């Protein structure tokens, strides 16, 4: 088969409601993958990147959210991008590699030559066509996206060693206790269908071990199967680590931005990164204005077409305004995400904050934080339907849904 005729599919792992607890209160009523970054659902950014892959046949979203939670989005994005997007619900968590294997028949129905695997909670420029080209040159089973980070932060991720010339993956360890390398795994991969054989091999080996133990001890079997179910396979510990150094896996290093979206603070940082990317990739999505007929816009700003922003407001940099938002006269917004149906009244100020759906910010009120995205309370978060009354200040705080604040609070979690 000619390369030009080869089909490619993409799989995006979206997790499920038992994960992402650090994302609360923003994930109470909205699945984390559908939370908007730079005006688009979190999962929209990797999906859009997949659209750039040559000969893309289908995109699969795999997770254990209820199908109804993704049905509307999947239908909408399929029509928008003119590529089939399907949500596949796991009956239970199968692990990052086990979930791929569980749906292998559906993934392989177009007989793809290559399979991309992406994690939804990754923010980067997703250089997928370049990865595919490099992967074909390497001739291995898989290629993983990697990036260099500071030695201090490397231990939070999967650290690896690669051959500087051939780019072969020589060693891989997940979140090591001692420093191994400043090169880390970005959670973006491209594989040949041989990945399914590798995953099957892990399950078979685990079953064989369990059968051996059954002869000597039923209690041992219980321990093995409880800790490592036959169909639960982790991509990092069970596939990447054992295959490192066997000329099967290779690396592709990105020099662009990369972050992992685990907390609301990181979602605000990643929204800013995507807004900056829009300058070259999607400039039509960025707002503009000079304060005459429309609001003054500074830096990278997204405003949904249905939002109403007063001409005397000053917006930006790094601001995302969602559908049906009303922004009053004299409002100042800096580095914030304003979600659907929020009302911001005259002369309010919002800085380094996320304002939840259907919330109301009163006149001359102030919602802000210090902007340290990595700190526990580096941003202020207002949950859904929070009311901040006139002249109140909410500083470095988290407010759960359906609360009314008529006094100022600082460094608090309002339950």
TrEMBL record:
The GO molecular function terms of this record are: nucleotidyltransferase activity
Which InterPro entries does the annotation name? GMPPB_C (IPR056729), Mannose-1P_guanyltransferase (IPR050486), NTP_transferase_dom (IPR005835), Nucleotide-diphossugar_trans (IPR029044)
The Nucleotidyl transferase domain is annotated at 10-201
Query: Do you know which Gene3D superfamilies this protein is assigned to?
Result: Hexapeptide repeat proteins, Spore Coat Polysaccharide Biosynthesis Protein SpsA, Chain A
Q: Which GO terms describe its biological process?
A: regulation of L-ascorbic acid biosynthetic process
> Which superkingdom?
Eukaryota
Where is each Mannose-1-phosphate guanyltransferase C-terminal domain found? 297-414
- What family name appears in the similarity comment? Belongs to the transferase hexapeptide repeat family.
* The protein's name: Mannose-1-phosphate guanyltransferase alpha-like
